[in-house]
Amino acid sequence: MSEIENKKLAVLIDADNAQASICPELLAEIAKFGIASVKRAYGDWTTTNLKSWKGHLHKHAIQPIQQFSYTTGKNATDSSLIIDAMDLLHEERLDGFCLISSDSDFTRLATRIREAGLTVYGFGEKKTPEPFISACDKFVFTEILRPQVAKKKATESENADLKPIIISAIEAVSKDDGWASLSGVGGYINKNVPSFDPRNYGYEKLGKLVQSLNYIEIDKRKSDDDDAIIHIYISVKS
Predict the structure, then answer these.
(1) What pLDDT, on the 0 to 100 scale, is given for residue 228?
(2) Are 36 and 96 in contact (CB under 8 A)?
(3) Which CATH number is 206's domain given?
(4) Quick check: 149 pLDDT over 50?
(5) Which of 81, 115, 145 is the last residue of a domain?
(6) pLDDT tens digit string along 224-235?
(7) How far apart are CA 120 and CA 139, in angstroms?
(8) Structural domain for 24, as ranges
(9) Whole-number mean pLDDT of the chain?
(10) Does 220 lie in the same domain as 118?
(11) Which residues contact 128 (CB under 8 A, 6 or more apart)?
């Protein structure tokens, strides 16, 4: 197994702010980043609000953590999750955390975990506040995890936010001739835009996405060591 696949992760779910229906897809996505060594879901399980979660808890061996709502308007679930996260952090046996919520209250938690040198993967809906997204190393919008017969490709006007991301990445990693390797561009974007994912624009891979952009020029080059290996380079059309 690769180093990434061996990473031990804590999966902490804010059940009040996460959709139970995508639980299988969520765990499949997390498996790309490592092993879910700890799986916990937080909420008041005595209420009917979380009944949709209960079947998934048993099926996927997720431990429910009971947190009563002591005061109306105060989110005790958040506090319970944060306390457990800090306890797990101090045990020093994990490589990263997966925080599943669309709530900005976990912004400081994500920042604190990263300060300790661990990786933070965030998962939430597109309504998630920007501070929480930016506090994570990687943030995945859960809408793209939903099973769909056919994913709609975004039009140029719909993905207007994409152009500055792609162009700034090319400018940052390109050689003097203006050409940049696709892998270098992808690496740069992943480090600087936590929520970036080709699936947000209807494509499974970055290569397929850039091929659809009319302002990008593509050059496929054979490897010097092996003709069977093709490296993709991209540049901004003049």
Answers:
(1) 76
(2) no
(3) 3.30.420.610
(4) no
(5) 145
(6) 777 778 899 999
(7) 8
(8) 8-145
(9) 89
(10) no
(11) 101, 102, 103, 104, 122, 139, 141
Under DSSP, is residue 94 helix (H, G, I), strand (E, B) or coil?
Answer: coil
Structure tokens at 54: 């209960």
* Single-letter residue type at 218: I
CA pair distance 19, 198, nearest whole angstrom = 22
In a domain, 151, yes or no: no
Place of tokens 């719909």: 158
Predicted local confidence at residue 4, as pLDDT? 60
Same domain, 59 and 174: no
The pTM is what? Answer: 0.86
> What distance in Å separates the CA atoms of residue 136 and residue 108, rounded to the nearest whole number?
10
Tokens standing for residue 61: 């061996």
Average pLDDT over residues 113-134: 96
- Residue 180's contacts (CB-CB under 8 Å, 6 or more residues apart) are 169, 170, 173, 174, 233, 234, 235
Q: Are 14 and 77 in contact (CB under 8 A)?
A: yes
Look-up of token digits 């101090």:
90
Q: Are 22 and 52 in contact (CB under 8 A)?
A: no
Which phi and psi (to 5°) does residue 97 adopt?
Answer: -130, 145
Same domain, 125 and 62: yes
For residue 166, the surrounding DSSP H or E stretch is helix 162-173
